[in-house]
Amino acid sequence: MNNIIIEGGHRLSGSVHISGAKNAVLPLIAAALLPEGVSEIEETPWLTDVCYMCDVLNYLGAHTQYADGILQINPASLTDCTAPFEEVQKMRASFLVMGPLLAKLGEAKIPLPGGCAIGARPIDLHLKGFEAMGAQITIGERYIEAKVNNLHGARIYLDFPSVGATENIMMAATLAEGLTTIENAAKEPEIVDLANFLGAMGAKIKGAGTDTIRIVGVRALHPARHTTIPDRIEAGSFMLMAAITGSELFLENVITSHLQPIIAKLNDAGVRIIDEIDGLRVLPSGRILPVEIKTLPYPGFPTDMQAQFMAFLALAAGNSTIRETVFENRFMHVAELQKMGADISVNGHTAIIRGVPKLQGAYVEATDLRAGAAMIVAALAAEGETVIGQVDHIYRGYENIVGKLVEVGAKIREEQSAE
Ligand code: UD1
Known about the structure:
The chain is of the alpha+beta class and 419 residues long. It has helices at 22-31, 48-59, 85-90, 98-105, 124-132, 163-173, 189-200, 232-244, 260-268, 306-313, 333-339, 369-381, 392-395, 401-407; strands at residues 2-7, 15-17, 39-42, 63-67, 70-74, 107-111, 136-139, 143-147, 155-157, 179-183, 204-206, 212-216, 225-227, 249-252, 273-275, 279-282, 292-294, 319-323, 343-347, 350-354, 363-365, 385-389, 411-416.
């Protein structure tokens, strides 16, 4: 496994092209199992998570092909309803094939999902939805099996607006008989992107982006071509990399409205961001002001930006608090930031960040994907050299992160680790 090595204390400048969103493209890929014929997804970021998802589809008998940012998916030879154990273990989002498989083949057998180690992350809400639609669910030691003779519409209330459950149920409902209503649905931009792709295939969906989504099932869907929305978490991460180094940085390919919860907190912290025609410009700012953050489902502050913001606030002029309400146990980056001199304590679901004047380079680990991005944010501003280990986590969700940072002047490189 490689390390990323960063010499801190250098300003960034220039512009960064933001890739298609990882969290949008993974459900889009699963959705491409639903129609007959070849669908195309433009702005597909080439990430390890995308490769895992393609592996799952290929294993199921579909055919995927990637060139120049366009992913072609042909589900014509989809025959197998059992997803591969190893791939699903590597990535929780591969559970998203369950909805399409149930709808298309009436059967799905999926290993219990893995993914980033950030808390229990159950899938009960997905299963509750499928059961309401007529599926029989059997939970084994390693696999979950679902079977259905007649997938039918249902009224499904989600106890929590789960992104994955909303997506999985929405996909299954496109081919179910009658009306499905998802109440307390997730409202993330990635849900709207998926609904747009499904709509382009001929699905009848209303209300995506609100807390009530209505889907009237159709007999069949046709393939479609779709462009993935830009990655709001990648954009937010680059904003913080600019802000912590006091740099001016331009971000191309962003949807500003998706970034409002992040921009609002950056503004509170004293960072100025200008909305321009082709993108967003982060301006150099002075001392970081402390802020209070509580993670929430969209349009609240995203849990996927929590770690990176914590790294940034480690250098604030005063005390900040971050309360994590979406996931259990998502503070693994705290111990890593402490190695760099951050003064952070955790009390239950709340972290108190006492700003320090400087961070020091150290050996740290990317304990999960966003924690890894947080290490990059901190390292760019730290004195001396930081070596980040376990960087495979970072490559799951940040396309060409080292290349993009080199382009804007960061002193960053990759090296084979000693083990
Ligand atoms: C998605 C994102 C992830 C992000 C998360 C929250 C993808 C591929 N991943 O993950 O990056 O951090 O949304 O914005 O899009 N829950 C249940 N039962 C369920 C499902 C979820 O209790 O059946 C709980 C989870 O344990 C967690 C919370 O709901 O505490 C949020 O999970 P969910 O919104 O489902 O996240 P994911 O779709 O897994």
